[in-house]
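Journal club prep — side note

Before the paper discussion, L.F. wants everyone to see what a predicted structure for a comparable chain looks like in token form. Sequence:
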Amino acid sequence: MIEIAMNRVYCIAIMSLISVSALAESMRCGDQVIAVGDDKARVLRYCGKPVLKERPQTKTRLSVDAHGEQRRQRVPMERWVYDMPSGQLSRRLVFTDGRVAEIETGDRQ
């Protein structure tokens, strides 16, 4: 009986951790969810213009081709900052090659 209860506790804990990590990789704009992999057009459509766009930079990305050779590729990288509704933390979206690569949490508004 105790073993069943402990298994339930572990399951709930694991599901909570999965939920928290999913939240860190997404943000809500109105009734839409913006997530890693979304493109700039989708973000602009649902979130509007950011309050700040950092100057675009390039980032070197390492990849392995079909022959197992390592390749360096320069890709565009850009950060957009969104102020969220009152009481929520701001969000910084990091775009790599035109797609959301990271969603960072900033200061409370």
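L.F.'s comment for the group: Strands lie at 26-29, 32-35, 52-53, 57-64, 70-82, 89-96, 99-108. Keep this in mind when we get to the figures.
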